[in-house]
Fold this protein.
Amino acid sequence: QVQLVESGGGWVQPGGSLRLSCEVSGLSLNYYAIGWFRQVPGKERKGISCVSSTGGSAYYADSVKGRFTISNDKAKNTVYLQMNNLKPEDTATYYCGAMWSLTISTSGGPNKYGVDYWGKGTVVTVSS
């Protein structure tokens, strides 16, 4: 059974940092790319970052480039998203998704339609 479990969300002031984790079981990061997506109520889910199955390529949406860093630890089957200089507009529920075939959207992040498996999300709130 495939499971993706996000953790690390919470409340942070603008300018602060958080690190999200996506713990994956039931599939190998050697074969699946993992992406991070976010969604606010009433809006579509958007891909913000992803790392290829080889770990050699990382992609970022323009909205987070230079502030967020994705990494993976294949020994732990976990993917991380380090988020720095957070802004109120980063407030959202963050999801990770596993993709057998990675496609990149025009915004620079992963395409949500390529996700085969989803986690249940973790909430990030950025406010003063």
User: Anything to note?
Assistant: The two ends are 40 Å apart (CA to CA).
